[in-house]
């Protein structure tokens, strides 16, 4: 972990007194203890975390919510577009690619078709 940068407010730092019971001066080395909070996976403060993947269809961009996506999923509301949940079929239609037969070929994840 050498060379890593850590940004912490001064309220989260705690200095340790030296052996004589005095705080270390600026000329001496001082020991600093950081109180780090773990990053929990799954739930945070009672809210469920949504995992999403950025997708595109033509020039339109949206986020595919992984937990809500169920194959075949054509009518399942699992695409977040303009702060609304819509189905992949609706996303393809809004993107102007409704004439394509297969929505999995129209939607791209990282430049790659879903099919």
UniProtKB/TrEMBL annotation:
GO MF, any single term: metal ion binding
SUPFAM superfamilies recorded: SAND domain-like
SMART domains: SAND
Keyword Calcium: no
Cellular component GO terms, alphabetical: nucleus
Region of interest: Disordered: 1-28
GO BP term, example: regulation of transcription by RNA polymerase II
Keywords: Nucleus, Transcription, Transcription regulation
Domain SAND: start-end pairs: 53-115
Protein name listed in UniProt: SAND domain-containing protein
């Amino acid at each position: 972990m050498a060379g890593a940068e850590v940004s912490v407010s001064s309220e989260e730092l705690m200095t340790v007194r030296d052996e004589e019971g005095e705080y270390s001066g600026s000329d001496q080395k001082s020991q600093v203890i950081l109180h780090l909070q773990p990053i929990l996976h799954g739930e945070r403060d009672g809210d469920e975390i949504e995992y999403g993947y950025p997708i595109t269809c033509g020039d339109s961009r949206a986020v595919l919510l992984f937990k809500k996506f169920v194959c075949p999923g054509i009518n399942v509301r699992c695409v977040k577009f303009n702060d609304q949940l819509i189905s992949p079929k609706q996303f393809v239609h809004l993107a102007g690619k409704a004439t394509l037969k297969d929505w999995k070929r129209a939607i791209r994840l990282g430049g790659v078709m879903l099919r």
